[in-house]
C-alpha cells in the first residue's frame, strides 16, 4: 500500500512540477515535418503574458490583435484564428460553396483533396476536379481553363479554384496565379489558397503576402508549420465571409474560449521566425545538392524547405539511412522504400546538416558498387508525389 502511494505521488509530481528543467529531452533534429518544432521557453513566457478573454464571444484582445495583424499583412478585411489548417481550409471552402451541385478545381496533389478526410464531400457536398500538372511542378492557367465545369445540367459547376502554395515545397509563380485568378474571377469563380507554407513562398520569392492576397478571395495560413507556433491556423477574407466562417467554426465545434495564449505566441512567431526562413531554405538546398552529389536523385527541385529524396542509385533504402542518422540524433522518415520527404525548419542547426551529409557519405561509401535498388513501393512517389502534413 505504501509503495503504491509512493508511485502515485511520483506520477503526480511528474506532471505538476512547476518547471520542466529535470525533464530534459535528448536533442532530436526532426526533419519529418516542419510541424515537428517544439515550443521554446521564450514562447511559454509570451503565452503567460497573453490576455485571457473568451474568443467565442470575440472578447480576447490577443486573438483580436493577431487577427488584425494577419488581415493587414494579407490586405484582407478580416481574419479568423482556428485550431488547424484543415479547419481553415474546410471553413473557407464551405463558406464559398453555397448550394450543390458544385465543384472545386485543384491540383491533384492538393492537401485539401488528399489529406483532409474527404472534407469537401463531407462538409460541402462538393465534387472535385483534380488537375494533373503536366509540367510536374504546378498547374497552369491553360490547364485550369480546359477543366472548368460549366452550367450544363450534366455537370457540377466549378465554383472555387483552390491553389496550394507552396506545394511539395515548390513555389507556384505569381504570374501564373494571376492568370488563373483573372480567368476564374471573369467567370464568377472564387479563388482560395491553401497557404500552409505561403510564408515560405513569400520569403523565398520576395512576393509579399499582401501581393499574394490580391489574387485570392480567401486564404488559409498555417501557424504551426514553418512559422513554428505550437498550435493554430488563420484564415482571411472579407468581413461578411469571415463572419460566415466564424459561424461555421462554431457549428464544427471549433469555437474556443481562452485562446489568447496561443494567439499571442503565434503573433510572436510570425514576427520572429518568418525572417529566418531564408536561412532554412539555404540549409535545405545545401543538403539537397550534397545528397545529389553523393548519388541520390531529387524527386523535385529544392525551392524552399523540403528535400524530396530518392536513394535508389546508392543501393541504400531510406530506412537504412534513417537508422544510421538516428544514431546522431537526426530523424527522417524511414521504411523499406527508396524515397522520402524531409522538411527543414528553424530548429534544424547548420551542424545537423553537416552531420547528415557526413553520415550519408559514409553510409553510401559502404554500398559503393552495389546494384541500384528497384524503384518500387513508396517510390511511386517519383511518378506523381502526393502532399503530406
Automatic annotation (TrEMBL):
The keyword Lyase applies. The keyword Lyase applies. Residues 30-309 form the Aromatic amino acid beta-eliminating lyase/threonine aldolase domain. GO terms for cellular component: cytosol. It comes from the Eukaryota. Keywords: Lyase, Pyridoxal phosphate. Transmembrane segments: none annotated. GO terms for molecular function: L-allo-threonine aldolase activity. The modification N6-(pyridoxal phosphate)lysine is found at residue 225. Pfam families: Beta_elim_lyase. One of its GO terms (biological process) is glycine biosynthetic process. Its cofactor is pyridoxal 5'-phosphate. Belongs to the threonine aldolase family. NCBIfam families: GntG_guanitoxin. This is Aromatic amino acid beta-eliminating lyase/threonine aldolase domain-containing protein. It comes from Mortierella isabellina (Filamentous fungus).
Amino acid at each position: 500500500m505504501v509503495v503504491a502511494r509512493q508511485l502515485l505521488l511520483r506520477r503526480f509530481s511528474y506532471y505538476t512540477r512547476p518547471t520542466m528543467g529535470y525533464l530534459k529531452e535528448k536533442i532530436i533534429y526532426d526533419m519529418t515535418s516542419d510541424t515537428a518544432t517544439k515550443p521554446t521557453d521564450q514562447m511559454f513566457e509570451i503565452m503567460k503574458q497573453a490576455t485571457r478573454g473568451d474568443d467565442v464571444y470575440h472578447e480576447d484582445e490577443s486573438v483580436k490583435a493577431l487577427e488584425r495583424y494577419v488581415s493587414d499583412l494579407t490586405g484582407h478585411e478580416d481574419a479568423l484564428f482556428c485550431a488547424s489548417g484543415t479547419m481553415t481550409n474546410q471553413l473557407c471552402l464551405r463558406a464559398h460553396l453555397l448550394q450543390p451541385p458544385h465543384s472545386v478545381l485543384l491540383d491533384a496533389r492538393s492537401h485539401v483533396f488528399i489529406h483532409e478526410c474527404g472534407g469537401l464531400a463531407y462538409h460541402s457536398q462538393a465534387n472535385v476536379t483534380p488537375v494533373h500538372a503536366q509540367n510536374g511542378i504546378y498547374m497552369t492557367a491553360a490547364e485550369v481553363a480546359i477543366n472548368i465545369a460549366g452550367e450544363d445540367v450534366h455537370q457540377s459547376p466549378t465554383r472555387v479554384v483552390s491553389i496550394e502554395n507552396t506545394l511539395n515545397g515548390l513555389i507556384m509563380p505569381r504570374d501564373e496565379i494571376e492568370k488563373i485568378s483573372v480567368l476564374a474571377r471573369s467567370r464568377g469563380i472564387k479563388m482560395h489558397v491553401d497557404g500552409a507554407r505561403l510564408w515560405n513562398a513569400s520569403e523565398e520569392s520576395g512576393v509579399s503576402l499582401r501581393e499574394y492576397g490580391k489574387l485570392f478571395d480567401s486564404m488559409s495560413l498555417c501557424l504551426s508549420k514553418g512559422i513554428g507556433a505550437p498550435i493554430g491556423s488563420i484564415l482571411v477574407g472579407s468581413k461578411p465571409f469571415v463572419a460566415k466562417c466564424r459561424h461555421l467554426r462554431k457549428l464544427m465545434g471549433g469555437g474556443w474560449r481562452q485562446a489568447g495564449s496561443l494567439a499571442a505566441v503565434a503573433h510572436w512567431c510570425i514576427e520572429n521566425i518568418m525572417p529566418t526562413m531564408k536561412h532554412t531554405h539555404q540549409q535545405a538546398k545545401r543538403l539537397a545538392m550534397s545528397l545529389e552529389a553523393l548519388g541520390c536523385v531529387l524527386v523535385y527541385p529544392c525551392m524552399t524547405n523540403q528535400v524530396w529524396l530518392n536513394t535508389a542509385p546508392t543501393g541504400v533504402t531510406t530506412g537504412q539511412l534513417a537508422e544510421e542518422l538516428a544514431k546522431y540524433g537526426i530523424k527522417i522518415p524511414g521504411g523499406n522504400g527508396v524515397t522520402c520527404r524531409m522538411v527543414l525548419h528553424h530548429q534544424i542547426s547548420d551542424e545537423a546538416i553537416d552531420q547528415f551529409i557526413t553520415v550519408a557519405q559514409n553510409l553510401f561509401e559502404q554500398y559503393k558498387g552495389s546494384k541500384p535498388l528497384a524503384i518500387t513501393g513508396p517510390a511511386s512517389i517519383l511518378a506523381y508525389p502526393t502532399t503530406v502534413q
